[in-house]
Amino acid sequence: MQTKLICSDIDGTLLNKDRELSTKTIAVIKDMAPIPFILISSRMPQAMEHLQEELDITHLPLICYNGGLIIEGEEVVHSTEINLDITKALVDFCSDTEIHSSLYHGREWYVPGMDFWANRESNNTKVVPVLQAIEMTLEKWKSEGKGAHKIMCMGKPTELDSLVAFIESNYNDQIIGYRSKPTYLEISPKSISKKTSLETLLSLQYPELGLQNVMAFGDNYNDVDMLSAVGVGVAVENAISEAKDVADHKTACNIDDGVAMFLEGSLCS
To answer: What is the pTM of this model?
Structure first.
């Protein structure tokens, strides 16, 4: 089937070693127009929009928080949140450990303090969080009828292992944690994924297309179902084995412009 929409993960897939878009990647993606190029990531909107601007695709939707939030400009296209009681239970668990907990909803990112983890994530994403006690954030969201689009937990791998076991014992049917690296656990509603968010986006914005018309790039656990479901799934060389196993093709590492290299070949074919 002909590719009529392209989507790509960001960290570990699209960005170079400096966590930026290379000149080559920008040029090649611009050459793909008018085929829509959709960014799909666990990142929050502000951590993706500056990349959209560089690629001249600000008119296109964004899939944020592993599919928990789909937006087009300021318009919310689709939203799925974590129950507030579950959020409280998770942060209560983390309060007895050294795990850092970040809470996200839409364009909001709250941290209890600018520790090593908050500073690291802020530097990586070019977004500055709001300092606010977790209890205050939960009270604010309760009064506003909100839940978390994502809970980011960062810390020692052994402590995160304990958090994973707590989730599996108590909330396995409602939330899921993706290990983006040994020290990062990104928690999302279990009902959504990059695959399901793509299906939702296609049904709402591109009803003439199906997953068979999509080319997708990824590298990590949260990309596996997407890569296996689309018409053309491409794993970068630095991807985990689970992603490579389900991908239709492999390309060079993210730091070697793997996405751009594969797209150049597609343009020439």
So the answer is: 0.95
